[in-house]
Amino acid sequence: MRSQRVAIVDFGGQYTHLIARRCRELGVYSEIVPFTKFPEEIFSEDYETLGIILSGAPRSVDEPNAPKFSAEDLLNVQVPMLGICYGHQLIAMAFNGELKRGTIMEYGRTCVMVVERDVLLMDVPDQFIGWMSHMDSVVRHPPGFKVLALTERGAVAAMKHAERPIYGVQFHPEVKHTQMGSSILKRFLVDVCGFRCDWKPVDRVEELSREIAATIPPDESVICAVSGGVDSVTTAVLLNRVLDKRLYCIFVDHGLMRKDEPEQVVATLRRMGIANLIFVKAAERFLSRLKGVKDPEEKRKIIGEEFAKIFEEEAAKIPKVRWLAQGTIYPDRIESGSAGSGSALIKTHHNVAGLPASLRLKLVEPLKDLYKDEVREVAKRLGIPEEIVSRHPFPGPGLAVRIVGEVTEEKLRICREANAIVEEEFKNAGVYDKVWQAFAVVTDSSWTGVMGDARAEGYVVIVRAVESEDGMTADWYRADMDLLDRISKRIVNEVGNVTMVVYATTSKPPSTIEAC
Predict the structure, then answer these.
(1) Mean pLDDT of 328-349
(2) How do the residues of the chain divide into helix, strand and coil, expressed in percent and rounded to 5?
(3) CATH topology of domain 3-192
(4) In whole angstroms, what is the distance from residue 207 CA to residue 3 CA?
(5) 64-73, 448-457, 507-516 — which is least confidently predicted?
(6) Lowest mean pLDDT among 135-144, 181-190, 334-343, 433-442
(7) For the stretch 106-142, what's the b/e string if a residue is b when 16 or more beta carbons lie within 10 angstroms of its beta carbon?
């Protein structure tokens, strides 16, 4: 029996991944498909696609180059369809509804009034709060559609084709601010599409194991890049249960790790039964190449290139190595411009930036379709220690992206010690597991201070903590003032050469989570 899935057609909207995540939380496997691949990649031999969701977009539907589908395009797809925000407007335009631009603008919480009951709105009250984020509005529903709900300003908030299971909603049911939003999505997935809602991330363990066995020929070996984070360790353990001694895990200490991390990683991998563990100490090699480099993308590029060179050198020593395994996850691919649609490159990840031709290794990424929290569930099923499972995400280029400007020995020392203090204090306060990440950044700026009655000049350190579900968007964490006071005092008193500690209060977007 083929696995079921819902296809999310991506127009570049900020909530596309949130839609996909909400569907998965409801037990329905979801995948994001670029609008340029519609309808070719909607249906495949691997999945039984029972429904389609058209996502939001940052553009206006009536712009000359905005993505559009015709009524014929939509009618030719023989599965239920739900348009959200831009998708709602696209459906209205395709079927000759009337849209107005900029006359009715609605953002944030908006009152939605049900005017006709339908299975989609079965669970909501006659008036409910919907989360809006739009300038264009559907002011007259298309012929052949019926209005299900209106906004408080009279725009069409929800509609349905009279004969076909084609729905449109102007509000965002995937956003938690929408009242009964999950119920609306579940009604679409279960009652309209007919999903079983039985998908769980942990069920992917056996499926991924079968995929690995089918992909890697029995006479070929794999090298796996391990950083010590939950993504790479989970990748290694998954591969190890299938390949055993045909797996060679390479852990490179590039000198940019957290405090005491190299020793902890090696000990953990050995406890997990990794037989072939190659520990490469290469701090001097990386730091010498980073000397004088200030541009963050250039730093990432250098680190990625050096990793590739090391893997090439180590691979040459191992017989029959044909594959390189990496712990790439879904957000990595999206932010690096490897998937999705209409999304700009945010940053380069060294593990998805492309392999040099000289490496001559094929790539295997078993976790590439999973979100971070789903990887953690898989890790727990595999018996990976909690200290790895719950560890905050850490960038592949390490502390280099938490140091603004050139990576020097002094800035690296400060960054490593300050990060350790931030993590320790968040754990002591019992809030480490409540945030997505908490860490310290060393800036290129200095601040005048007074140390022991004498004037002193030291670095400015930024403390950053964010709440997030998948790393694609994040809100800054409203930390307790006493916690921040303890962190600030400890960094200034214990680290040395720091005269100012500040706290970052900007969300993503507009900022990224990491500094560089």
Answers:
(1) 55
(2) 35, 25, 40
(3) Rossmann fold (3.40.50)
(4) 11
(5) 448-457
(6) 334-343
(7) beeebebebeeebebbeebeeebbbbbbbebbbbebb
> Is residue 318 predicted with pLDDT exceeding 80?
yes
Check whether the bond before 142 is cis (ω within 30° of 0). Answer: no
In whole angstroms, what is the distance from residue 114 CA to residue 131 CA? 15
User: pTM for this one?
Assistant: 0.75
Taking only the tens place, the pLDDT of each residue in 32-45 is 989 988 887 788 77
Query: CA-CA distance, 262 to 345, in Å (whole number)?
Result: 31
C-alpha–C-alpha distance, residues 153 and 23, integer Å? 30
Q: Quick check: 138 pLDDT over 70?
A: yes
Strand ranges, E, within 155-266: 156-161, 166-169, 221-226, 247-253
Please tell me the distance from the alpha carbon of residue 192 to that of residue 364, in angstroms, as a whole number.
36
Which residues are paired to 247 by β-bridges?
A: 222
Q: Which regions of the chain carry the CATH code 3.40.50.620?
A: 201-389
Q: What's the whole-number mean pLDDT along residues 319-336?
A: 80
Q: CA-to-CA distance for 110 and 130, rounded, in angstroms?
A: 5
> Please, which contacts does 29-32 make with residues 24 or more away whose CB atoms are closer than 8 Å?
29/3, 29/4, 29/5, 29/199, 30/5, 30/6, 31/5, 31/6, 31/7, 31/369, 32/8, 32/334, 32/339, 32/340
> Which tokens in the block code for residue 131?
């989360």
Provide the 3-class DSSP secondary structure of residue 446. strand
Catalytic positions? 85, 172, 174
Residues near 78 by Cβ (< 8 Å), separated by ≥ 6? Answer: none
CATH 3.30.300.10 in the chain: give the residue spans. 403-503
pLDDT tens column, 95-114: 999 988 765 555 678 899 99
Nearest to 11 by CA among 101, 87, 119, 92: 87
Query: Architecture of 201-389 per CATH?
Result: 3-Layer(aba) Sandwich (3.40)
Answer whether CATH 3.30.300.10 is correct for domain 403-503: yes
